[in-house]
């Protein structure tokens, strides 16, 4: 009885591998709806602002100059034209994440602390 159970298990496993493919044999490609997987993020040198400590700025799909300009505008006006921004305030710390209205693959995030 043990030999038949082992043989059945080997048969089932080999059928599964044949049907699904061996995960270690080659690569698989897929199509992403936008045609791209996503841009890498870039850590930017944060701008200097009197009365605040900008802790960090990160750009995705845009330049650090654009991300820093957006950060400064959000600090001044709580918005950045052409982007939808979400702020999170915790005590003296503020975090913001802004995504381009025209291209969701373009965004920046920043955090700062009020002195």
How would you concisely characterize the structure shown here?
This protein has 115 residues and is α+β, with helices and mostly antiparallel strands.
Please describe what this structure looks like.
The structure is a single chain. The protein is α+β, with helices and mostly antiparallel strands and 115 residues long. The protein has a domain at 41-114. It is 29% helix and 32% strand. The protein has helices at 2-20, 64-77, and strands at 41-44, 52-60, 83-90, 93-100, 107-114. The protein has a five-stranded antiparallel sheet with strand order 1-2-5-4-3, covered by helices on one side. It is globular.
Topology overview:
Elements: H1 2-20, E1 41-44, E2 52-60, H2 64-77, E3 83-90, E4 93-100, E5 107-114
Antiparallel strand pairs: 1-2, 2-5, 3-4, 4-5
Main features:
five-stranded antiparallel β-sheet; 32% strand
Helix-strand category = alpha+beta
Q: How many whole angstroms does the radius of gyration measure?
A: 25 Å
Coarse shape? globular
Strand order of the largest sheet: 1-2-5-4-3
Unreliable spans: 1-37
Count helical runs: 2
Question: Helicity range of the residues?
Answer: 25-40%
What average pLDDT do the residues reach? Answer: 78
Number of strands: 5
Pattern of helices and strands: HEEHEEE
Q: Strand content of the residues, in percent?
A: 25-35%
Distance between the termini: 76 Å
């Amino acid at each position: 009885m043990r030999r038949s159970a082992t043989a059945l298990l080997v048969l089932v496993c080999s059928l599964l591998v044949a049907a699904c493919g061996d995960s270690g044999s080659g690569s698989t490609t897929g199509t992403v709806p936008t045609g791209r997987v996503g841009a890498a993020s870039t850590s930017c040198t944060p701008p200097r602002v009197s009365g605040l400590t900008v802790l960090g700025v990160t750009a995705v799909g845009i330049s650090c100059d654009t991300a820093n300009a957006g950060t400064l505008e959000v600090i001044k006006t709580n918005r950045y034209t052409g982007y939808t921004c979400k702020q999170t305030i915790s005590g003296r710390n503020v975090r913001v994440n802004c995504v381009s209205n025209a291209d969701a693959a373009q965004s920046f995030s920043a955090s700062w602390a009020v002195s």
